[in-house]
Design a protein that fits this description.
The complex is a heterodimer of chains A (315) and B (236).
Chain A (H helix, E strand, L loop, with lengths): L1 E10 L2 E11 L4 E5 L6 H8 L7 E6 L2 E2 L4 H7 E4 L11 H11 L4 H14 L15 H13 L5 E5 L7 H14 L4 E6 L2 H7 L2 E6 L2 E6 L1 H8 L3 E8 L2 H10 L3 E11 L2 E8 L6 H11 L3 E6 L4 H9 L7
Parallel strand pairs in A: 3-8, 3-9, 6-7, 7-8
Antiparallel strand pairs in A: 1-2, 1-4, 4-5, 9-10, 11-13, 11-14, 12-13
Chain B lengths: L1 H13 L1 H24 L6 H19 L4 H6 L2 H5 L5 H21 L2 H9 L6 H27 L4 H25 L1 H10 L1 H9 L5 H28 L2
The chains are: A alpha/beta (315), B mainly alpha (236).
Chain lengths: 315, 236
């Protein structure tokens, strides 16, 4: 559905994006993830035909945006970072304007309009001036705008930025629902958002793609060792001796003294060995009870940080 | 293009700006009418039409200053550019919207023709028609300059100043030409918008003048599309 190949964009000396390639299948929700300034917006602006690329191609339905801008633009609904709203219009006037701007037939638009407003829940504010709406509602009107003309592809640039937590949840739910009928690219720098909504994630950093995978696979791939903290009641030195003797433990560190004689330890083990059972038995033998066990397996957050931070912190 | 035109015309009349400008224009033009026609006893509007060009130097920049700047500032430019409409269509829609307001504003002076007839005056019809056609064309040129200026910046004030200076220079070209004399004067006079207008206003229809006005407008609309395209190529 969407195919991006070797896309590069220079601003003078600066490479905003460098050789970016990925594709999105029909009906898929793709998360486009990266820290601020990584090139997400640039990629989206090129894909939607707002700015041209320096080299490389962006195709929708096999049509290159540079060669068939009109055709491609008709297939895309775009919600830019800042919703493109005319403050001096009412919601209905604005949506009517968008429909004629996007060359949606009058009849077709009549059939869509109420559904779209119902979907993003702006029916009750339709006669108000956009200027007087709250940020959350403005965002919804922006989203409604992208749905005008029922485009196959939705490109949403940070759709939840600046919203309160309740609104964020609602918008996410809405995007998930939209994913049933649309192919969606959604950019974000917020991880939970992407893992909650998207089926696949492209992580971009400094203009380059660093990973493409499902949210689950991404954290699994990098989670190649089991790592956890354990709080054990018992003399520090003795416990340390016992733990290091256990087969599979490759790293041990005392984290802190929790209480009296209870210490918490960070333990890393080979990934194909489950060391938790032998540790339990061994400690039970000598009578040092385990008070707490907590996995330190990598979350998507860690993956993201690892992929986008050059100097990895040695832990 | 029609969608953009319609929206912009509505925006003009939604805000006080169109009313204020039309009101101001009406005030000034009625002063000219009173002085140049009623008080002086000439049964013609040419004094009014000739002097109104000077008023346009102030009014057109204010009329056009927000036409493209606002889209850049509010981020709605992205909506327009990523729509199926081409940049030329966008600029044309914007230009026609500004021109429509100018048209409505300037049409108000037709009232004076009626008054002139009511007062028993018999103005020379070719002069009158020439004066009006000329001013509509001149207005189109000025509006195109204003639209061009508003494509250059994000600030309405800066846009207004640029087009004001631009229009002022256009108005002064005749004087500059007179000062320089010789060949330079000939060249400058060729480009002068106003000396051509004087001819039209005197009832001399010269097809080259009309073509010149239309070309001038087209060139500035074209330049505006180039500015927007250029920015798309260089910005993020």
């Amino acid at each position: 559905m969407i195919e991006i190949q070797n896309l590069t964009k220079h601003y003078g000396e600066i490479k905003a994006i460098d050789d970016v390639s990925f594709s999105v299948n029909k009906g898929e929700i793709l998360g486009f993830l990266g820290p601020n300034g990584a090139g997400k917006t640039t990629t989206m602006n090129i894909l939607t035909g707002y700015i041209p690329s320096t080299s490389g191609t962006a195709k929708i339905d096999g049509l290159d945006i540079m060669e068939y801008p009109r055709e491609v633009k008709k297939r895309i609904g775009f919600l830019p970072e800042m919703p493109p709203l005319y403050m001096d219009m009412t919601v209905t006037d604005y949506l009517d304007f968008c429909s004629s701007l996007k060359e949606v037939g009058k009849k077709e638009w009549k059939g869509q309009k109420d559904d779209i407003m119902e979907l993003v829940k702006i029916t009750h504010v339709q006669h108000r001036l956009i200027r007087n709406l709250s940020k959350g509602y403005k965002q919804r009107v922006g989203l409604a705008q992208s749905l005008v003309g029922a485009p196959d592809v939705l490109v949403l640039d940070e759709p939840t930025v600046g919203l309160d937590p309740k609104q964020i949840l609602e918008i996410r739910k809405l995007i998930k629902a939209l994913g049933k009928n649309h192919t969606i690219i959604l950019s974000s720098h917020i991880l939970p958002e992407v893992s909650a909504v998207c089926e696949r994630v492209v992580i971009i950093n400094k203009g380059k793609i660093v990973a493409v995978d499902t949210p689950a696979e991404l954290s699994k791939n990098l989670d190649d060792y089991s790592k956890f903290t354990m709080t054990i009641a018992g003399p520090e030195k003795r416990v340390k001796d016992i733990l290091t003797q256990i087969y599979g433990v490759k790293y041990l560190e005392v984290q802190n003294n929790v209480k009296d004689d209870a210490y918490s330890y960070i333990i890393e083990a080979d990934k194909d060995v489950d060391v938790r059972k032998p540790i339990f038995h061994k400690l039970a033998e000598v009578g040092y009870p385990i008070l707490e066990l907590k996995s330190l397996g990598l979350s998507l957050e860690d993956v993201f940080l690892q992929l986008t931070t050059e100097e990895k912190e040695v832990n | 293009m029609l969608a953009i035109w319609k929206r912009e015309v509505q925006a003009y009349f939604f805000q006080p700006i169109a009313y204020v400008l039309i009101g101001l224009f009406f005030l000034v033009s009625s002063i000219f009418f009173t002085l140049g026609t009623v008080a002086s006893g000439y049964a013609e509007l040419n004094f009014l039409l000739q002097n109104i060009t000077f008023v346009l130097i102030f009014i057109i920049p204010i009329l056009t200053m927000r036409i493209l700047t606002e889209d850049r500032k509010n981020g709605t430019e992205i909506l327009l550019v990523t729509s199926p409409a081409s940049v030329t269509q966008i600029v044309m829609g914007k230009f026609l919207a500004s021109f429509t307001v100018f048209f409505v504003m300037f049409s108000s002076t037709l009232l004076y023709t009626v008054i002139l007839y009511l007062l028993g005056g018999k103005p020379e019809v070719p002069m009158l028609i020439g004066g009006y056609i000329g001013l509509f064309l001149l207005g189109a040129c000025f509006t195109a300059v204003g639209v061009f200026a508003s494509s250059l910046t994000e600030s309405q004030i800066v846009s207004a100043i640029i087009s004001f200076v631009f229009l002022l220079v256009i108005n002064l070209i005749d004087s500059i030409a007179g000062f320089l004399g010789g060949f330079a004067a000939k060249v400058l006079n060729m480009f002068s918008l106003l000396s051509r207008y004087k001819d039209l206003n005197n009832g001399i229809f010269d097809i080259t003048s009309i073509i010149y006005y239309l070309s001038f407008t087209t060139v500035f609309i074209f330049l505006t599309t180039r500015v927007i395209d250029k920015r798309r190529w260089s910005q993020g």
